[in-house]
Amino acid sequence: MATNRRTLLKGAAALAALPIGLKAAQAGAQSTPAATPGGTPVGSPSAPLVVGTPEASLEVFSWWTSGGEAAGLDQLFAAFSAGSPSVGIVNAAVAGGGGSNAKTALQTRLVGGQAPDSWQSHLGKELQSLYVSPGYCAPLTDLYAEQGWNDVFPQGVIDQSSVDGVPYVVPVGNHRGNVMFYNKALMESNGITIGDTLSIDEFFTAADTLQAAGIPAVALGDRDSFAAPQLFENTLLGVLGPEAYTALWNDPSQWSSDGVTQAIEAFARMLTYLNPDHAALTWDGAADLVAAGTAGFTSMGDWAYGQFVSKGTESSIGWVTHPGSAGSFVTVIDGFTLPVGAPDTANASNWLRAAGSATAQTAFAPYKGCIPARTDIDSSTFNDYLKWSANDLTTATAVPSNAHGSAASPQVQQAIFDATIAFIVAPDTETYRVTIQQAAEDDAAS
Ligand code: GAL
C-alpha cells in the first residue's frame, strides 16, 4: 500500500495511469479553507494541487464535490491541517451524489487492498454491510474513549456508528432528509402560502397552481440514482407516519399495507409535476432550478441548503418538512472510518480526532447544511435553517433513510433504486410494491 501510494503521488505523469477515482483525488487535492459560507469552495476539482510527500500525506475518500459539500469538507481538512500542518491532504473525492460512483470505486480499492487512509460512510446498514462485516474497518473504541465521544455523541448516533457495540466510524454531521425547499418569490407571485407544515393535499393544491402557470412544481435530478428514491421514501413517511415507515425496514410484510399503495400513488402523482430535464440533472442542478425560480419545490436532504449557501442563493429559499412528514426527522449521518492496516495510522487517527472535534463540526455544519453530530455545540450562532433543524431534532421522531444507506441492506437499497427507475418509466403501482416487497423478503431470508 505504501509503495503504491508513493508511486501514485509522484506527479502528473502518474495521473494518466490512475483509475478515475484517484484522478479525482489528485485534481481535488487542496490545502486552504474557504473563509465563510458562500465563499469559493477551495475543495473543488479546479483547486490547486497540493500533495505532501507520500510518508506525510493523508488520503480522504468521499463523494463531496458539489459546492456546499466541497466547502464543508474543506473545513474538516482545515481542522486537520491546524494540528498537522506538514501533512499534505489528498482529497480523493469521487463525484456523484449520494456516493453512487464513489462507493463502487471504493469497493474496488478495498477488495484490492488499496484502502485510503479514511473514507466516508453512512451510519447503520451501509457501515455494517459494506465495510465492517467484510473486515475493512478498524475498531475505534480507544479513540472514542480518549476523545470523550461517548459523552458528546447522542446514544442513538453511537449505536448506529457501532456494530456489536464497537464503534467503527466518527460521525461528523446530521442531515435531515425530509425537507421540501421552495422558491419563496415564486410561491408569493402565484398566491401560494406555505405555513410551518405542509400537508399532502396542500402540496398538491400548490403544485396544481404552479402547473397551471406553466411552472414545474417538483424539481428532480434523477441522474443521481438516490434522488427519486429519496422523493419516494419521503412520501412513504408522509403518508405512513414514522412508526409504519420504520416498520417497513424491519418487517417485509409491511410492504403489503394499503398505506404503501397510497404512498406509491402519491409518489406517482408527484412525478407528474417534474422538470422536463430531470433525467439530465443531478440533485444540485435540480436545487439550482428552485433557486432560480424555474421550478417550485425540491424534496431533498439539507445538503441542498449547503448548495444554496455555496451559490449565495439561500435568501430566495424557504423550507418546510416534506408533505405530511412534520414531526419526523429522516436522519442521514455521515462519518469517517479508519481502515484495518492503514499505511499511516497516526495521520488517519489525527484526521478522525479532528473530524470529531467541536471545532471542526462547528465549522463544517453551516457549509454542509447539516447540524453537528456532537450535542455540545452552541447552535445560537447558526443560520436560521440550521437552528430550525437543530430545534426540530429535539422533538421529532428520528427515522432512517434507505436512499442514503442506513435503513436497509445495500441489496434492498439497490432493489428500490432499480424499481424506482422502472416506475418512473412505466408507473405501475402494484409492480413497484410487489418488487420491493419481494426484495425485502429475499433479503430477510438470506
Ligand atoms: C448523501 C450524503 C450527504 C450528501 C448527499 C448528496 O448520501 O450523506 O452528505 O453528500 O449524499 O451527495
Question: How would you describe what is shown here?
Answer:
The protein has helices at residues 2-8, 12-15, 20-28, 67-83, 100-111, 125-132, 141-147, 149-152, 155-161, 184-189, 200-212, 227-240, 242-248, 258-270, 283-292, 303-311, 345-355, 358-368, 384-393, 410-425, 429-445, and strands at 57-61, 88-91, 118-122, 162-163, 166-167, 169-176, 179-183, 297-300, 317-321, 328-337, 371-372, 397-400. The protein has 446 residues and is an alpha/beta fold. The strands form three sheets. Strands 1, 2, 3, 6, 10, 11 and 12 form a seven-stranded mixed beta sheet that branches. Strands 8-7-9 form a three-stranded antiparallel beta sheet. It has a two-stranded antiparallel ribbon with strand order 4-5. Strand 1 (57-61), helix 4 (67-83) and strand 2 (88-91) form a beta-alpha-beta unit. Helix 12 crosses helix 13, helix 12 crosses helix 14 and helix 14 crosses helix 21 (429-445). It is globular and about 60 Å long. Residues 1-54 have low confidence and may be disordered. Bound molecules: beta-D-galactopyranose. Beta-D-galactopyranose (GAL) is lined by residues 63-64, 69, 97-99, 122, 175, 283, 301, 303, 332, 334, 404. The site of beta-D-galactopyranose (GAL) has 14 residues, from strand 10.
Percent strand? 5-15%
DSSP strand tally: 12
- Oligomeric composition of the shown chains: single chain
Class of secondary structure makeup: alpha/beta
Task: Report the biggest beta sheet as strand number plus sense, adding barrel if it closes.
Answer: 7 strands, mixed
Low-confidence stretches: 1-54
How confident overall, as mean pLDDT?
89
The dominant shape is: globular
| Bound small-molecule species | beta-D-galactopyranose
- The number of helices is 21
- Helix fraction by DSSP (H/I, runs of at least 4): 40-55%
Determine the N-to-C terminus distance. Answer: 34 Å
Q: Mind telling me the C-alpha Rg?
A: 21 Å
